[in-house]
Amino acid sequence: MSKKRGSIGLVGLTLAFTLVACKEPPPLSQIEQQIFTRSCNFSSCHSASAAAGAGGLNLESPSFAKLVNVKSGVVSSKTRVVPFDPDQSYLMEKLTQTRPTAGGRMPLVSDPLPDEEIEMIREWIAGGALNN
């Protein structure tokens, strides 16, 4: 009987991992609308007019070609977004670390992004950083 319970537990655990793994990452368009437009695209930050002074990064939509597999304008050894690898993506470092490799934690002019928004970006990157 205990052997049977162990099998059921393993099946349940496998199903739970499968459901989590199949979770659809948020689309980039949602991140652009909800996060970048509100928290990043200011005249003094990551807008087209300020991009030269903000690490050369313009986060106005469309942002895919400016983020994914693109080297940082400040730290050339870092890639802004590495598809499927949030931990190697410089964007995540800038959003989560108090003392990133260069500069400060983003956004500089306000409180850090809420955990839910950082997780949304992390999920997008982990899901392949699709242009959607």
Summary tags:
132 residues; mainly alpha; 5 helices; 42% helix; 0% strand; disordered N terminus
Descriptive report:
- By secondary structure, this protein is mainly α.
- The chain has one domain (25-126).
- The chain has five helices and no strands.
- It has helices at 2-21, 28-39, 64-67, 90-96, 115-126.
- Helix 2 packs antiparallel against helix 5.
- The chain is globular and about 40 Å long.
Quick take:
The chain is an all-alpha fold.
| Tally of structural domains | 1
Rg (C-alpha, Å): 18 Å
How does the major sheet shape up?
Answer: none
Distance from first to last alpha carbon: 49 Å
**Unreliable runs:** 1-20
Give me the number of helical elements: 5
Q: Work out the number of β strands.
A: 0
Principal-axes geometry comes out as globular
- State the secondary-structure class: mainly alpha
- How much of the sequence is in beta strands? under 5%
Mean pLDDT: 86
- Share of helix, binned: 40-55%
SSE pattern, N- to C-terminal: HHHHH
